[in-house]
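Supplementary notes for students who missed Thursday's class. We covered one full example, reproduced here. Read the sequence, then the structure, then the short commentary at the end.
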Amino acid sequence: MPAETFTFEYEAGPPQRLDHFLVIQFPEHSRSRLQSLIKEGLVEINGIPARKGGQTLEAGMTIRVVLPPVKPAAIIAENIPLDIIFENADLIVVNKPAGMVVHPAPGHPGGTLVNAVLAHAPDIEGIGGEMRPGVVHRLDKDTSGLILLAKNDRTHRDLQNQFRGRVVNKIYLALVDGAPPTSSGLVEAAIGRDSGSRKNMAIVPLHKGRDALTEYHTLEKFQDHTLIEAHPVTGRTHQIRVHLAFIGCPIVGDTLYGRKKPSMRLKRQFLHAARITIQIPGESAPRTFEAPLPDNLANILETLRGRQDIGRKSNTGDMYFDE
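Structure (token representation):
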């Protein structure tokens, strides 16, 4: 796998440290990894290798970053059942359960989706410079639903280009506390690392983060909750969770950005990647895949619907239930 080169123009905003800028542009990489790129001369400012992470960037500067292939670490194939929605010679579409991490990382060396995929398709190529075979995009550990894995480099590049070009249509279902300010709308607010906690994301000024857009539409209203269909136009880390919390309706069960004590009995966040539309290489028309709500989430909705039915009957005088 060849090295990847990225070029950025620092066009606006106040002066900013180089290392802070790189953290915003490459949130999937650690600060130490980015610092090492600078030390190795793989980061240039206006064609000159950067001297240190503390260098100041100003408007008009061009930043060039080379990401070399990373020597892959050994990952053990594990015979973990997969809910495969679709598979051909190029692509696997998996319905990932909540609680499963997508790829090995510190603290999660095994039991991941990648471990399972390697057992299912042992010839899948290591793609992206790191040992994340086939991974095109990611879902949070406690988010369930559809995720794509490419089975070769050509398909991986094609799918990544679709994501970068914002032509992939992803629809999530989210149950939130309260209700959004309007039944449908667009949240447009930049997202970056939380200055108080590097593991968290937050709404930040644009020059300190990356632009982020999420469309939402109300599907069903309950007394204290709302079922929302969310469409992330961009693909930032924790985007839907941060944006919905930002407009005052955090996702049920999201103890990081929402209520520390969930309003419903749920040990995960009520966020499910329900539908995705992509262009499969070699096919003439886009293809849409769907994954039904897991039983525990569907049961939550049935509980809320039952409460509404009780409330309606009580209001009409037909029946009274003392809760």
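Commentary. The domain at 169-308 is CATH 3.30.2350.10 (Pseudouridine synthase). Confidence is low (pLDDT under 50) at residues 316-323. If anything here is unclear, bring it to office hours.
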